[in-house]
Amino acid sequence: MGNSYLMRSVHLLSAAVSLAAIGLTILGHASGSAMAQSPGAIGQTKGDAGPRADKCAGRTDVLGVSRVVEISTANGQLFGQQQYGDNDFLKDGEIVLTFDDGPLRPYTVPVLNALDAHCTKATFFIVGRMAVADPELVRDTARRGHTIGTHTWSHRNMRSAGSLAKGEVELAISAVRKAAGQPTAPFFRFPFLADSRAMIGYLKTRDNGIFSIDIDSVDYRTKDPAEVHTTILNQLAHKRKGILLFHDIQPSTAGAISGLLGELKKRGFKVVHMISKAPATTLPEYDALADKELSRKQLAAAKSPLANRAIVWPVSPGDAPAGRTDTRPAAVRVPPALAPSSGAVAAQGNPPPQAISQPGPPPTAPAAAPPRSKWRAPDDDWATKMFRDY
Ligand SMILES: [Zn+2]
Fold first, then answer.
1. Which of 62, 100, 146, 340 has the fewest CB atoms in 10 Å of its CB?
2. Is the Cβ–Cβ distance between 149 and 189 less than 8 Å?
3. pTM for the full predicted model
4. Residues bordering ligand 1, an ion, CB closer than 5 Å
């Protein structure tokens, strides 16, 4: 994992050289602005973010972005002190904003608007089929200058995914890249933070950085924005810095984020925006599958108004994350990419780190027989039920 090398680096070299060794580049300060739009930065909008950047230029009354960190993920890197001690690039008072599981329009849009209003930037770890369900929103997120990473195709637990794990990772990278309409970052977060040696190894071969967390909003446990607000501030009072985890499918986060960003500014916290040195690369076979999924979505949307209102692109029955209730309709198809293939990587069952093991929520029984259509009627609570955990 490179730990021994990094440990030696810390002992033998200065901190600056050590940072260089893991591929971190500090691009400079951009206080109060939507950051210096560094030419060629990955996942950034070039040119057409002008008006927004202007609106933020020179502002000292907003949270803004204090610095941009460019991360090289060549051969993989592990981030987030809750699970990995490898790469701590944050100084006292510095935070990184991350949002998982989306996009989901009712909650992602308020989150994006709050980030814009505070002239700050975040990283979104997007679920592949959520991207296919609403590619426009992924594109909008990218155009606003946020960093786009991935979080598997269907939020499957990678420890129990076996031979499906590789397809989960790759189809998400392809689908999110296509939905974004511009290069995305090779940044990955494991659903439920449930990593495995095998998939860490695989992601390294794909030059993907793996991001755990430092501070958890636990926003899936409450619908009360005040709870999210307090949870974050209490942890920050103690830890003083870190990678913050939110979910832009959660009403509590959508309700809390604007006030919370204001309070973080008041308390003197600084936002660090992570960008990737190189773009995520995709594999042609999964690009083809992602194209197919996106075309099917377009076709379905054209045929049925209901399709436009669906919040996720369906996956096959029986592949919900372990311990979750699958409220999806029964008769749906599995993308062939997720079928076992000879090149698939078998995930190993590492025991979960203690800090993140939590009892799952009680199963929620489906309210009624699933509809005949493969498209679900809109249900704002649906994703909340599906992704109650990381
Ligand atoms: Zn998640």
1. 340
2. yes
3. 0.73
4. 100-101, 191, 390
